[in-house]
Amino acid sequence: MPDYRLYCFAQSGNSYKVALMLALCGLDWEPATVDFFHGATRDPEWRAEVNAMGEAPVLDHAGKRLAQSGVILTYLSRRTGQFGPENEDEELEILRWFLFDNHKFTSYFATHRFMFSLAGKPADPAVLGFLRSRIDGALAIVEKHLADRPFIVGGRPTIADFSLAGYMFYPIAETGYDLAASHPNIHAWRERIAALPGWKPPYDLMPAAPPAT
Ligand SMILES: N[C@@H](CCC(=O)N[C@@H](CS)C(=O)NCC(=O)O)C(=O)O
Fold first, then answer.
1. What are 52-64's pLDDT values in tens digits?
2. Domains and CATH numbers, the chain
3. I need a surface site. Which of 108, 127, 143, 197 has the fewest CB within 10 A?
4. Beta strand pairing call for 4-8 and 64-67
C-alpha cells in the first residue's frame, strides 16, 4: 500500500496543489477519487468520516488525516525537506501568499471556472462579471510580483508556487482565461514550474470525477 493517500479529483486545482507536491517530491501515493459533482463533499457521512469542512484535498499519511492544501503542503515540505522555507522570513512570506491565494486568487478563479464550464448549467453573466473583476485584480498583483523574480518566494520553487499555481494549468476552454496572451509573467512562471522534474498537468496526475449531470 502506498505511503500517502490523497482524496482528490482531477478537476480540483486545490487537490492539484498537493498532487503536484507529491509528484515533484517523488513520493509513493495513490489517489482516492472524490465524486464531487454528485455531492460527495456535502454528504454528511463523508463529512463525518473524511473532512468535516466538506472539501478536497484530504491527505492520509502514517495515521494522520490532514485537510486544507496549505496545511498539507506545509506538512509535506517539513516531512521531505523539499520546497519549504529556509528561514523564518521565508516561512512568513509563504504563509502570506497562502492566505492571499486562498482568499483572493484561487478562490475567485476556481469559482469562476466552476460556473463558467463545470457546473453543468448556464451561469449568470452578472455573477461571472463580478468574479472576473476580482480575478483580474488578483492576477495583476501576482503578475507584478513576478515581474522581477522567477518564483514567488526566495528565488527558487517553493510550496507557495504550488499553491498559487493550482489552477494555472487547466485548459482555456475551462477557465475562460488565456494567460499566455494576457499575463506574460504568470505564463513564464508556470512554464518554469512545468519544467521541474516530475511535473505533470492535473488530468495526468489524478483521476477525473464524473462530470455534473
Ligand atoms: N482552502 C481549501 C479549499 C478547498 C476547496 O475549496 N476544495 C473544493 C474542491 S476544489 C471543494 O471541495 N469544495 C467543496 C464545496 O465547496 O462544497 C484548500 O486549500 O484546501
1. 999 999 999 999 9
2. 4-83+199-205 (3.40.30.10), 88-194 (1.20.1050.10)
3. 197
4. unpaired
